[in-house]
Amino acid sequence: MTDLDSAMIRAHATGDRAALISLYTQAADRANTLDAACFFLTHAYIFALEAGALEATPLHARLVAHGREA
Predict the structure, then answer these.
(1) What is the pLDDT of residues 44-58, one digit of tens each?
(2) Is 6 exposed, middle or buried, given 0-12, 13-18 or 19+ CB atoms closer than 10 A?
(3) How far apart are CA 65 and CA 52, in angstroms?
(4) Closest by alpha carbon to 28, among 18, 38, 19, 20?
(5) DSSP string of 23-46?
(6) CA-CA-CA-CA dihedral for 23, 8, 28, 43, to nearest 10
(7) Axis-axis angle for helices 34-51, 17-30 (nearest 10)
(8) Which pTM does this prediction carry?
(9) What is the pLDDT of residues 16-54, one digit of tens each?
(10) How many Å apart are CA 3 and CA 59, to the nearest integer?
């Protein structure tokens, strides 16, 4: 298991939404395919929306840029 995977599991276990936003964004940035990147971006975006985090706006913009969100 990678460090990123372990960090995601810990963040889920503790409910650390700020970490989840960051970690899923990192996973998107490291993804090998656009589909995988958008999968992780969607998760980061949802956590950002739930947290009322400022990151929601740029995450949404990335999804729109990839034709995944209107």
Answers:
(1) 999 999 999 999 999
(2) exposed
(3) 22
(4) 38
(5) HHHHHHHH-SSHHHHHHHHHHHHH
(6) -100
(7) 160
(8) 0.93
(9) 999 999 999 999 999 999 999 999 999 999 999 999 999
(10) 23
